[in-house]
Automatic annotation (TrEMBL):
The chain crosses the membrane at residues 14-32, 44-63, 75-99, 130-151, 192-215, 227-248, 293-326, 347-371, 407-427. Keywords: Cell membrane, Hydrolase, Ion transport, Membrane, Potassium, Potassium transport, Transmembrane, Transmembrane helix, Transport. It comes from Geobacillus sp. (strain Y4.1MC1). It is found in: Cell membrane. GO terms for molecular function: hydrolase activity; potassium:chloride symporter activity. It is an enzyme of class 3 (hydrolase). The keyword Transferase does not apply. This is Potassium uptake protein, TrkH family. It is a multi-pass membrane protein. Pfam families: TrkH.
Length: 446
């Protein structure tokens, strides 16, 4: 008698299924009457959209978070943001720690996939550090924001607002409680709010691997190639985007022109940081010039660094592609960063991630031009890129989406958060190397 074969869920399948379950639980909670101020609960599609956006740490909303939800509803959204930002495997590991349970090899492999780490060596220690970093950074950011908000609202409300926005922005989610879809535009010239939230977005987007290496630098006295490339690429993108946005918006009467010199700098800094991939804004996105909007689309597509709470194709992917192009132009065979040669499989993976991302954005944009007829093309492209990169910035299209449009954006956010490659691996039954190789062929290029 044949023994029944045990079905094995590999890490990609577990991650896809895990995020789907969290979204469904969040949907059910947001449909409860106690979740909304009107006492009716959200309709299924709106609840599903909101839960997907929160779990995928995107920030696109079809109803205003600050006015539509009760405290219970807002706390559900906040919990989804935190779990979605750090990953459900991180929280599963936390509970295992609390219960004194040993982390198995299978769970370590899941953590490696969830954290986007290269090896399982030291993965449990990294998860512990991630939890500590998160608590400390969110608490400090929340308290600083609470002090500032206390000048505008009662102390208890200021503390709640401070913690909500700290958690939301550290996890690069972009949800806010200010009401009427205005995000943080009321604090466009406020240095405390701008600098604290920019710091939270940057720390959440740089990646926990980088933060851990900075923390261990006193002992190791070295940084890995990953950290060097991630930090260098992020710094170059930030500096260049600050300069470009400042030049493009300087004479715009709806954005920078009416602001003070300090306000101009703060507003420019915020709009350069937030596409990487937070989603909150201090300038009205629809008032920006078209060149600035196109620049933001590019920044959103690149996104944050690997192993972070942000989305996009990631800074290191973008850097490797640029390095490959530069090597080809110079007639060099190898891609070299900081005197280290990049492996060919890494270059192929970077190319696959980028092409997959471009295909998703183009395909979603095409679908939205069909379902949202009459809308501006740039607005649709902006929305599709924002959803794929889990940014949350919008030119105002999200609340006006048709039912089909909401479904399309939900699927895009899910694909962007979990990762197109992870989904592809999850739905592929067997991934085995070919037992043979075909002879080489030549094709004309260019």
């Amino acid at each position: 008698m044949k023994k029944a074969r045990k079905y094995y869920l590999d890490p990609p399948k577990v991650l896809v299924a895990g995020f789907a379950v969290i979204i469904l639980v969040g949907t059910a909670l947001l449909m409860l009457p106690i979740a909304t101020n009107d006492g009716k609960g959200l309709p299924f599609l709106d609840a599903l959209f909101t839960a997907t956006s929160a779990t995928c740490v995107t920030g696109l909303v079809v109803v205003d978070t600050g006015t539509a939800f009760t405290l219970f509803g807002q706390l559900v959204i906040l919990a989804l943001i935190q779990v979605g930002g750090l990953g459900f495997m991180t929280f599963a590991t936390l509970f295992a720690f609390l219960l004194g349970k040993r982390i198995s090899l299978k769970e370590r492999l899941l953590l490696q996939e969830a954290m986007n780490n290269l090896t399982i060596e030291g993965i449990v220690r990294l998860v512990k550090r991630v939890l500590i970093f998160t608590v400390v950074i969110e608490l400090i950011g929340g308290l600083l924001l609470a002090v500032r908000f206390s000048f505008d609202m009662p102390l208890l409300k200021a503390f709640y607002f401070g913690m909500f926005h700290a958690v939301s922005n550290f996890n690069n989610a972009g949800f806010d409680l200010m009401g009427n879809f205005r995000s943080l535009t009321g604090y466009v010239e406020d240095p405390v709010v701008t600098l604290v939230i920019c710091a939270l977005i940057t720390l959440g987007g740089i990646g926990f691997i980088v933060m851990n290496e900075v923390y261990e630098y006193r002992q190791t006295r070295r940084f890995s190639l990953h950290t060097k490339v991630a930090v260098a690429t992020s710094g170059i993108l930030l500096a260049s985007s600050i300069l470009l946005i400042f030049l493009l918006e300087f004479h715009n009467p709806n954005t920078l022109e009416p602001l003070s010199p300090l306000g101009k700098f703060l507003a420019t800094l915020y709009q350069a940081v937030t596409p990487r991939t937070a989603g909150s804004n201090t300038l009205n996105i629809s008032d920006l010039t078209q060149p600035t909007l196109f620049l933001i689309i590019f920044l959103m597509f690149v996104g944050a660094s690997p192993g972070s709470t942000g989305g996009g194709i990631k800074t290191t992917t973008f850097a490797i592609l640029l390095g490959a192009v530069w090597s080809q132009i110079r007639g060099k065979e190898d891609v070299v960063f900081f005197k280290k040669r990049i492996m060919y499989d890494t270059i192929y993976k970077s190319l696959t991630v980028t092409i997959s991302g471009l295909f998703i954005v183009i395909f979603v944009t095409m679908l939205l031009t069909i379902t949202e007829q009459g809308k501006d093309f740039l607005m649709i492209l902006f929305e599709a890129t924002s959803a794929f990169s889990t940014v949350g910035l919008s030119m105002g299209l999200t609340p006006e989406l048709s039912p089909f449009g909401k479904v399309i954006i939900m699927c895009t956010m899910f694909a962007g958060r979990v990762g197109p490659l992870t989904i592809a691996y999850a739905v592929t039954l067997h991934r085995k190397p070919d037992p043979f190789r075909y002879p080489k062929g030549k094709i004309m290029i260019g």
